[in-house]
């Protein structure tokens, strides 16, 4: 059976890397993610990754910290590069070839982001990790994921979270919340569901790029999604 998707962009939250800790990076989480990613690259699927930085630094209220928004956002971008380096290390331990590209120049540790080079790496079977968001303050890593996915012509964005899809309400707070199998972009707007920030979500809608929200912390789930099995929630036009 062939994979349903040939080229994917996997969006991971920084918080997911914490595992059971309150901050930082849990090596067990990195190892599980790397193992799952290898299972799909073995099928010939091309994988690009964007990781948030919330486990290390999250842009906070300027009034509370005294750090202006733009400065705080740049600090968050550097946190995503640290996470990217950790993920790169985990993937290489699994025997995969990788490239870390940064939207902010730091030649000693990462390539600069160049769209054509990123696509060439993917075509050669390398896993490409995009760090430093879009390189601009006031944009989230969700927006970076949407932008990069469109630029590299990915078939789908896979948003790996702690919950197994999109629900009518927060399933961690409301026991009566029910899960959507599929939902349209318009319905997400109408119901004010929290899938991605609005800029990222609108980019996906305008470019007809589907999103699948699924539980990345359950081993094997990524492979199930790639094979088109009924895992998570699909958002489409």
Architecture overview:
The protein is of the alpha/beta class. The chain has a single domain, classed as Acetylglutamate kinase-like (Carbamate kinase), CATH 3.40.1160. The protein is built from eight helices and eleven strands. It has helices at residues 27-41, 62-65, 69-93, 115-123, 141-151, 185-191, 198-206, 221-226; strands at 7-12, 46-51, 98-102, 111-112, 127-131, 156-161, 166-167, 179-180, 182-184, 211-215, 233-236. A nine-stranded mixed β-sheet has the order 4-3-5-2-1-6-10-11-9, sandwiched between helices. It has a two-stranded antiparallel sheet with strand order 7-8. Helix 1 links the parallel strand 1 and strand 2 (46-51). Helix 1 (27-41) crosses helix 3 and helix 5 packs parallel to helix 7. The two termini are 26 Å apart.
